[in-house]
Amino acid sequence: MKAFLDLADFGHDAVADLLALAARLAERPEPAALAGRTLGLVFFNPSLRTLASMQAAMAQLGGHSFVITPGSGTWDLETGDGVVMNGKAAEHIREGIPVLASYCDALGVRAFAEGRDLATDLAEPLFTKIAALCDKPLVNLESAVNHPCQALADWKTMDDLGVPRRGKFVLSWANHPRALPLAVPAAAAHMAALRGMEVVVLRPEGYALPEPLMRKARDAAASAGGSVVETDDRESALAGAHVVYAKEWGSTAHYGDATADAAQRAALGDWTLRESWFARSRPDCRLMHCLPVRRNVAVADELLDGPRSAVLPQAHNRLVVQRAVLHRLLANRGRAAIAA
Question: Which among 88, 172, 285, 331 could bridge 202 via Cys, Cβ 3.0 to 4.6 Å?
């Protein structure tokens, strides 16, 4: 494995193999597997689980890591092309990324969507630039419309819970005070489709996932024997569900228009997930959410603190699967370097 950028780069069997490695490393740790290896982490945007779990995973495999947060203790990094740099940013990614890559054996980068123009964000311009500038294995720690590390942890969580491969997976829009990126909902829908599940994207009018993201999920479903549909009919969507994955995202009808988005979501207070939502789901239906979550805005306390909630094991699995990703990226590379 040369990079970890998108689950779409892997088939169902390749993902299953990576999850088997994650399970093996959990049962039989390899505390020296990445001895002498260094992971660079660049966070253009905030993080809690991603940052902590990547550092912990690297340490548990015997390696080291460093963290760069542009503009906080380091120079601001300019990302635009042809920019006259007479503003806040003192350094450009054209120099910054190659330099950082030269200091480490793999680089992980988080760079959210700009949230202004949908077509631009769907094209992943910033992450594409960064990938072209990095000559080391690159890990996507959340880009404009993708979050493969989260998706891999979500897959493992459902395996751990015994959710059937052909089970019903409902990705439900949830309320939030402001528009959030499409990365997690896009990755979750694609992941469940690649797992072979019956995927239902439940969302209010104006919040449909963009067609390129739905097409990607449908293509994955076709390869794995699953299905993908989208609806605003809450009752039919939730009927018989094995998993309800709550996630907030911005209006795609008013993408980049914060005022119009806020006006649209003002009438959607009933999209706070509650126990009553599960009346027609399977009795053992589980709640998932990637965190962070706004309690009693996106998801009610009764669900987060109740027996349906899988959010804490889901968060822990970030560490478990990322250990496997780093091992797969760097363990053989490390042995080859030592042998040479």
Answer: 172
Residue 2 lies in a domain: no
- Considering the domain architecture, whether residues 261 and 223 belong to the same structural domain is answered as yes
| Interval 257-305: pLDDT, tens | 999 999 999 999 999 999 999 999 999 999 999 999 999 999 999 999 9
Q: Could you tell me if 21 and 130 lie in one domain? A: yes
Tens digit of each residue's pLDDT (9 = 90 or more) over 43-63: 999 999 999 999 999 999 999
Classify the C-alpha dihedral 206-212-217-219 as positive or negative. Answer: positive
Check: CB of residue 298 under 8 Å from CB of residue 176: yes
SS (H, E, C) 163-182: CCCCCEEEEEECCCCCCCCC
> SS3 of 327, please?
helix
- Of the candidates 93, 35, 89, 86, the one whose C-alpha atom is nearest the C-alpha of residue 59 is 35
**Long-range pairs for 251-255 at CB < 8 Å and ≥24 separation?**
251/179, 251/206, 251/207, 252/118, 252/182, 252/206, 252/207, 252/208, 252/209, 252/210, 253/205, 253/206, 253/207, 253/208, 254/206, 255/115, 255/117, 255/118
The answer to whether residue 200 sits within a structural domain is yes
Q: How many domains does the chain have?
A: 2
